[in-house]
Task: structure prediction
Amino acid sequence: MNRALCIIVTAIIGITVIAGAQAAPVHLADSLVIRFANRTRLVIYAPDKAGIQALSNYDLNKIVREMGMKLDSLPGGQTAISQDGERFLKDTVLVVTKKKNSFTIVINSNGDTTKTGSRQKDENDRDYERAKRRKRERDGGGFDYGLSIGLNNFIQQSANLAYPEDSYDLRPIGSRYVALSVGAMPTLIRGKYASLKLYYGVEVAWNNFMFEGNNVAEKTPTGVAFPDAGRVLQKSKLTVCTIGIPVVPRVTFYNTDGRKICHIGLGGYINYRLDSYRKIKEADGSKDRRHSDFYLNNYRYGLIAHLGLRSVDFFVKYDMSPLFQADKGPDVRTITFGVGF
Result:
């Protein structure tokens, strides 16, 4: 091991915790000890004074900064430091490799930037970005944008002779759900193999209720009605656009390498109706769209469950509130299921 390597490896390993520390540098023969007020001591050993002066060739701030970032992104464990024979300079990237019961931090460098090939720099950049991305995944920092797609259906709560169930039967595939969302998921409790997180955000959603037959939605003075159009229609649907706030506690599980395996969550949501309309497509392809509230409840709330596998999130939403106002439409709840990205 050459002299420069002795200096840098000892400098990293020499960060230890002591009691009753004060921020003051203390010089010993061929060594430098710096005590900090936060009970931390930095010890640097060198064979001579020239070794201490040679520290100007190294970016010690980057060493501490990158080690802290990378170690924060991994579960606890013993850490070993190895070197490939070159100095840790300002363009060097630390590469973390997990073994059975410990983690190895490899100083991956071939010298300064003028001597490093483009392929080596690309690999180092990927390792660096991968470590940062994994830390963001565990911490849930920042906001993410999402897209959810799925299907809708009605669950009838009580029968009403004024609204026979076959008058508002839905097409299983045609009754689609689409939502755009932005949200965050900070970590509340972090463990080695599992973490408790809280997902919250804002989403704009469209529930499309496409009728099975030739029935159409109409607003009458006494309530919503679903009469037969008396002609063959290509499609007839009622669309409700809402803005909502979902809040879902999640438990995320990790493997021994710190990679996400899956997550499960159960929470709730509240939505407010922004718009609603009925759309008819005639047999000849012509369309008719009419906007109305159709006696729909402006506020909807319910439960939502998540089951995620890596980056894919399956969900089920159930409205605990009725879709229509009391005695103004059928007593139905909405259930929605699908996948989010």
About this structure: Residues 81 and 105 are 5 Å apart (CA to CA). Residues 3-137 form one domain. The chain has two domains: 3-137, 140-340.
